[in-house]
Amino acid sequence: MIxxxxxxxxxxxxxxxxxxxxxxxxxxxxxxLSGMSAMQQMVENLASAEHAAVGMLTQPELAxxxxxxxxxxxxxxxxxxxxxxxxxxxNGVDIPRTFLILNxxxxxxxxxxxxxxxxxxxxxQSPSILASSCQQCRDCEEQCPQNILISEWMPYAHQILGxxxxxxxxxxxxx
Length: 175
Ligand code: SF4
Ligand code: SF4
Fold this sequence. Notes:
- By secondary structure, the chain is mainly α.
- The protein has 2 domains: 2-75, no CATH class; 95-171, no CATH class.
- It has helices at 2-6, 15-25, 39-50, 59-75, 95-107, 111-124, 150-163.
- Helix 5 crosses helix 7.
- The longest helix has 17 residues, at 59-75.
- The two termini are 23 Å apart.
- The structure holds iron/sulfur cluster (2 copies).
- One iron/sulfur cluster binds at residues 89-91, 93, 95, 134-140, 150-151, 154.
């Protein structure tokens, strides 16, 4: 679904190129720091910087970016960015990993794999890492820049990932 939106653009770009060009487009941005783990990514990022220019995206291209952004917003459960500012949890819960597994399962339409990943956590690590260990102390919520109601999300995420409950957007806590 997302790829079909990108495919409506006159100029074809990879998802990484879209992200970089969207940043270069903005007049308030003078440098972009992107994580790289392979030489090919370095080459691609340098190529992107070579053609960077303020205002480089057209209005139709910006509209496509907005449509993609909206689609991702609807697909994922929370706006967690895995920044881990909420860690460590005094009760051992791996908050970013819980959200990553849940969001990935929803965005890629593969909750079966997400539930397997969650079960592996239980098997490979201490059970306290699971969202079910949350004691609703809310210490983590003060640290979250996304203002996610983590204490409400953890039990709900465990029901979905650990107990097989169906995810329904209308049941979810506030983001
Ligand atoms: S609310 Fe839950 S997840 Fe957050 S710090 Fe407390 S026990 Fe950990
Ligand atoms: S602080 Fe918030 S956004 Fe960052 S990892 Fe924790 S829940 Fe996610």
